[in-house]
Write a structure and sequence with these properties.
- This protein is an alpha/beta fold.
- The protein folds into three domains: about 80 residues, Up-down Bundle (Four Helix Bundle (Hemerythrin (Met), subunit A)); about 200 residues, P-loop containing nucleotide triphosphate hydrolases (Rossmann fold); about 140 residues, Signal recognition particle, SRP54 subunit, M-domain (434 Repressor (Amino-terminal Domain)).
- Helix content is about 60%, strand content about 10%.
- It has an eight-stranded mixed β-sheet, sandwiched between helices.
- Helix 11 links the parallel strand 6 and strand 7.
- The two termini are about 40 Å apart.
């Protein structure tokens, strides 16, 4: 997401850095380019005008114009304004009800039902006991879809396939939740191809009779300018409490995210960043702003690592590394955890790599994913004994693996050589770590360990 806008803004900042100071002339040039970049990113015209006006006001201060580093000043100004535009700070969900109700709203195709299941999984991980409620009684197979998603995720689902009375369904779901200890109800309401009177009347009745703590509008980030119209219409009728943006990973422009918050004055609370059922995240304006400006998002990267990596398994791998017993099976385990971490494209987006353009990121990501798949095929072409004991692989076995994987013998020899070098390096680092534990490091021993890595 935001790849195109990110590239443009970083280019503008680099050009400004070539000037000695931030003058009125180069500031006007930068503002003109920023305006053009925002419009190309499909940002609403009202938002662009307000954004540019605010940047200009901040940049015209006397202290700013006298600064010595124009690019850093411009980054600071644009960063602060992006944070403001995206909603200033995290807006957590309201869990005050007993049970609390979260009403999911949106048009058909926005990802509402899938987002409901993703939210249930997220809340379950955070210690709540969610119940999905099938309130879409019109769309064919809508109830079956949410039941299937609930079953896949191990989440409870309340549905009444014989009823079209949504108010009755919600009331019965609340009674069921109280009896069975569910503390959060996620109402997957009906959507339409467009906003109509019947849909709004039904949603208004649910809102009036049950007063849900959260009314979240699910918007497809790829709809662009139309997202603003949809959000404003829903908000005018129902007074939304927040927004959920889906398919952020598929939208390189990101104009809708920058537009809906400004136009509705409602916060983005959650974002969908992939197809997997765990790909729903809290939205942090500060972190998103730093990513747009190419400064990465290390905090989110660390949080995802803590969520994905198995501490017990990591300690076991560390022991094997110390003894140079790291096997191809262990390599596959590490690769599996990396996949849970996210795509290479997502990981690169979180790393602070100034100047990394979308084309370069796509190339690195594509080549990296391709290489991961080749390695996986190569290892899976081995016998269980060979995967557990790399030293068993002789010339005859290499030829058999090459024939089975469709990978050339040269590439297999190269990978095995690199794998052995990696094992030696891992053991060397473990040796250094061991020598430095418990007091002052023994530098002579540490240097000897480093020499063994060569």
């Amino acid at each position: 997401m935001f790849d195109s806008l990110s590239d443009r803004l970083q280019d503008i900042i680099r050009k400004t850095s070539q000037s000695g100071t931030l003058s009125e002339d180069n500031m006007q040039d930068a503002l003109r380019e920023i305006r053009r970049a925002l419009l190309e990113a499909d940002v609403n015209l009202r938002v662009v005008k307000s954004f540019i006006s605010n940047i200009k006001d901040k940049a015209e201060g006397e202290d700013v114009l006298k600064g010595v580093n124009p690019s850093q000043q411009l980054v600071k100004i644009v960063h602060d304004e992006l944070v403001e535009l995206l909603g200033k700070e995290l807006s957590p969900l309201d869990f005050s009800g007993h049970p609390n109700l979260i009403m999911m709203l949106g048009l058909q195709g926005s990802g509402k039902t899938t987002s409901s299941a993703k939210l249930a999984i997220k809340l379950k991980k955070e210690g709540r006991n969610p119940l999905l409620v099938a309130c879409d009684v019109y769309r064919p197979a809508a109830i079956k879809q949410i039941q299937t998603l609930g079953q896949q995720a191990g989440i409870g689902v309340f549905a009444d396939e014989n009823s079209k009375d949504v108010q009755k369904i919600v009331k019965n779901a609340i009674d069921y939740a109280k009896e069975n200890g569910f503390n959060t109800l996620i109402l997957d309401t009906a959507g339409r191809l467009q906003i109509d009177t019947d849909m709004m009347a039904e949603l208004l009745l649910i809102d009036r009779f049950f007063a849900p703590q959260e009314k979240l509008l699910v918007i497809d980030a790829m709809t662009g300018q139309e997202a603003v119209n949809v959000a404003e219409n829903f908000d005018a009728q129902l007074s939304l409490t927040g927004l959920v943006l889906t398919k952020l990973d598929g939208d390189s422009r990101g104009g809708s995210a920058l537009s809906v918050v400004h136009c509705t004055k409602k916060p983005i609370k959650l974002t969908g960043t992939g197809e997997k059922l765990n790909a729903l995240e809290d939205f942090y304006p500060e972190r998103m702003a730093t990513r747009i400006l190419g400064m990465g998002d290390i905090v989110s990267l660390v949080e995802r690592a803590q969520e994905v990596f198995d501490e017990k398994e990591a300690l076991e791998l560390e022991k094997k590394m110390r003894k140079a017993e790291f096997s191809f099976d262990d390599f596959l385990k590490m690769q599996k955890q990396m996949k849970m971490f996210g795509s290479l494209d997502q990981i690169l987006g979180m790393l602070p790599i100034p100047g990394l353009k979308k084309e370069d990121k796509d190339l690195i990501s594509h080549q990296g994913e391709k290489q991961f798949k080749r390695i996986e095929v190569f290892i899976q072409s081995m016998t269980p004994q060979e995967r557990a004991n790399p030293q068993l692989i002789n010339s005859a076995r290499k030829k058999r693996i090459a024939a089975g994987s469709g990978i050339s013998l040269h590439d297999i020899n190269l990978f095995i050589k690199q794998f052995e070098q990696m094992r030696t390096m891992m053991k060397g680092f473990s040796d250094i770590k061991g020598k430095m534990k418990g007091g002052k490091p023994n530098m002579a021993q540490a240097m000897n360990a480093l020499k063994r890595l060569r």
